[in-house]
Specification:
Order of helices and strands: EHEHHEEHEEEEHHEH
Number of strands: 9
Largest sheet: 7 strands, antiparallel
Radius of gyration: 18 Å
Shape: globular
Strand order of the largest sheet: 2-3-4-8-7-6-5
Structural class: alpha+beta
Helix content: 25-40%
Distance between the termini: 21 Å
Amino acid sequence: MSWLNVKHAMHRSPWIRVPLMWPEPGLEDVEEAQSPEAWARFFAEGLWADFASEKPKPGEADLLTNILLMYALRAPAAFPDFEVFLHLPHPREIPLPAYVDLVEIEEGEDRATALRALTHADASYAIEPPIVEDFDSPHLGTGLRVLRYYQDQDEDSNEVHVGLRYAWRFEKGTEAADVLIILADPDAGRILRSLDDIDEFARTIRISPDEEVDTWKSS
């Protein structure tokens, strides 16, 4: 069997991985992996240290800690069991969550149909036809990248959101699964400004054989 390998994304700036369990299994000796509070403080202080020339104003470090804590507690619930990453290029930005996981293939569903469904390439709820493009990954081959605009589902809101999804089909021997990445934000500019970073992030995702799991956990 194989597994979703996000190791290389974990070491890519400006991305921060959110643990799905506290303390995170296998990291019992890592202080920031013991609780969401410790994790949020660690990354808030580290990010401000990366921008040492822009000293935080009073309260900004605590503000970022609280923002990261909120995402640590709430973001995983949006897509349970998905790996969660936050795109955060500057400590004064609002994090942009990205969700990654393997999706079981429904029996008899062909590749093209599955990838279009996963990426909402034919979404009837979009306010204009989604932008559907082939997207090449060095590890997963050619998949789809779909950008779409849609109205907030709240009846009292006219807010337009932007959604971005990537999907590939992984097939090796008797193994097969679809790989899905999901992002969405009410600020279209937030995603469009980050598109190069997101594309690079997407190209780091890979499927690895089981024998590499222990290596991943120890690194």
